[in-house]
From TrEMBL:
Binding residues for NADP(+): R46, K148
PROSITE patterns hit by this protein: G6P_DEHYDROGENASE (PS00069)
Originating gene: zwf
Pathways involved: Carbohydrate degradation; pentose phosphate pathway; D-ribulose 5-phosphate from D-glucose 6-phosphate (oxidative stage): step 1/3
Organism: Aquibacillus albus
Residue ranges of every copy of the Glucose-6-phosphate dehydrogenase C-terminal domain listed in the record: 190-487
Protein name: Glucose-6-phosphate 1-dehydrogenase
Reaction(s) catalysed by this chain's protein: D-glucose 6-phosphate + NADP(+) = 6-phospho-D-glucono-1,5-lactone + NADPH + H(+)
């Protein structure tokens, strides 16, 4: 088989992401036969650790998996640790010699992934040093995987991009947006482009509005320092939410290649109508959570969290109305909302279809239920179609019914995790589910106008929603003034 052979160098190997996501994902790939024995992982970080200590961390992070035929120790034997100072060129040279040895030992054909899973301040430096010290010149391929945040606005993102582009070509750069690795996010395209039932209706003649919601129960936890300079707009909206929007709005690609798909997404983002600074309040709502009760537990307010300013102006909730000025979508609002410390953890997309021009089956002349297509991204995975059908009685009114497809795997073990899918794609050289620079640039340009406005004008009413609620009232008002409501389904 053509299982990828490569060395994966993880910068930030003692961090949260490596332990919580990357090691388990590598394990699952290994277990599922998606990795050959020809792989090695080199963890680098500041902390001085021995190989043995590092391997113990790795084993701890895969403890949850117990299969008879996989020996955790032999899995962990592929892992090596290298204490590292990102600013010291000598460290790069030593690392390079070590990688050459491993390449020999594991027959990885000179293939290398450099995965930057650490604080972003060194992204640029590391990329340049990797090149200047020769770590990117091998006889195989070399790829750079880079985590968010990719800049803090268009300007800083561009500076970072220019810097890494000096060392890597665009097609060697894999910008992670882990939402693109989620099974049901990848399903958006299939649902759209593999069903005669939907694609003909997927436009402004039949769709009245589209809603994308991603709510979390968790608050800022111990990430106050990062989050204070980010907020929900930069943390979730600029990347995950706009990526889902692009997948929902894009034209059918002519082929399923990374270039074709990404260029359709870019086109959709290009058609986003920019919100002018004086219109921000008409199209966007910001929120910040207050105290409240979730699952019988008292929650503290955002402003009371660690490393958060007691008068913080940072938003933990965003709702927005977006318009796409192209032939397909003119006039169809896309409503997007995301927030922390909300009622439940859930990501859902609702496509609301227009009412029929004349419907004979009004329920007592009152309610008529629109057809909805709901794509459940997480934690429940599935698709629900809301239809109307006859009630089982003598009347002639209709009743809403639901057709449901449950994608939640019975055998949880086999549901690929986002990072697992993305790592595998990267090793195979498939960049479809990574964000191209053009997408990043357009997303920042759209978002910058809103964040500039919010930063220049402190929110008067923060905190403005209770922990455990569905966000500020203004978020409901945003839809009500268009005659719609947020569908909170299932
Ligand atoms: C991350 C954000 O990108 O996504 C976090 O930085 C957020 O603040 C997380 O909690 C949500 O991801 P998921 O997969 O749990 O929906």
């Amino acid at each position: 088989t053509n299982n990828p052979k490569s060395i994966i160098v993880i910068f930030g190997a003692t961090g949260d992401l490596a332990n919580r996501k990357l090691f388990p994902s590598i394990y699952r790939l290994y277990r599922n036969g998606k990795l050959s024995e020809n792989f090695a992982v080199v963890g680098v970080a500041r902390r001085p650790l021995t190989n043995e200590e590092f391997r113990n961390n790795v084993m701890k992070s895969v403890e949850q998996f117990q299969e008879d035929d996989i020996d955790h120790e032999s899995f962990a034997s592929h892992f090596y640790y290298n204490p590292f100072d990102a600013t010291d060129l000598e460290h790069y040279q030593k690392l390079n010699s070590f990688l050459l040895e491993l390449d020999d030992q594991y027959q990885t054909e000179g293939n290398r992934i450099f995965y930057l899973a650490m604080a972003p301040n060194f992204f640029g430096t590391i990329a340049s040093n990797l090149k200047s010290e020769g770590l990117t010149s091998t006889n195989g391929w070399t790829r750079l995987v880079i985590e968010k945040p990719f800049g803090n606005n268009f300007e800083t993102a561009k500076a970072l991009n220019d810097q890494i582009r000096e060392a890597f070509d665009e097609d060697q750069i894999y910008r992670i947006d882990h939402y693109l690795g989620k099974e049901m996010v990848q399903n958006i395209e299939v649902i759209r482009f593999a069903n005669a039932l939907f694609e003909p209706l997927w436009n402004n003649q039949y769709i009245s509005n589209i809603q994308i919601t991603s709510s979390e129960v968790l608050g800022v936890e111990d990430r106050g320092r990062y989050y204070e300079s980010s907020g929900a707009l930069r943390d979730m909206f600029q990347n995950h939410m706009l990526q889902m929007l692009a997948l929902l709005a894009m034209e059918p690609p002519i082929k399923l290649t990374p270039d074709e798909i990404r260029s359709e997404k870019v086109k959709a983002l290009r058609a986003l109508r920019p919100v002018n600074e004086d219109e921000v309040d008409d199209y966007f709502v910001r929120g910040q959570y207050d105290r409240g009760i979730i699952n019988d537990e008292e929650q503290i307010a955002y402003r009371e969290s660690n490393a958060v300013d007691e008068n913080s102006n940072t938003e933990t909730f965003v709702a927005g109305k977006l318009l796409i000025d192209n032939f397909r979508w003119a006039g169809v609002p896309f409503y997007i909302r995301t927030g922390k410390r909300m009622e439940k953890k859930s990501t859902e997309i609702v496509i609301q279809f227009k009412d029929l021009p004349m419907n004979l089956y009004y329920d007592q002349g009152e309610n008529i239920y629109p057809n909805l297509l709901v794509i459940h991204i997480q934690p429940y995975e599935g698709i629900t179609l809301h239809l109307n059908a006859k009630k089982g009685d003598y009347g002639t009114t209709s009743t809403p019914i639901m057709l449901n497809y449950d994608n939640t795997q019975k055998d949880k073990m086999n549901t690929p995790e986002a990072y697992e899918v993305l790592l595998h794609d990267c090793m195979r050289g498939d960049s479809t589910n990574f964000t191209h620079w053009d997408e990043v640039a357009l997303s920042w340009k759209f978002v910058d106008i809103i964040s500039n406005h919010w930063e220049s004008k402190a929110a008067k009413q923060f905190p403005n929603y209770e922990s455990g609620s569905n966000g500020p009232k203004d978020s409901d008002a945003l839809l009500e003034k268009d005659g719609y409501q947020w569908w909170s389904v299932l």
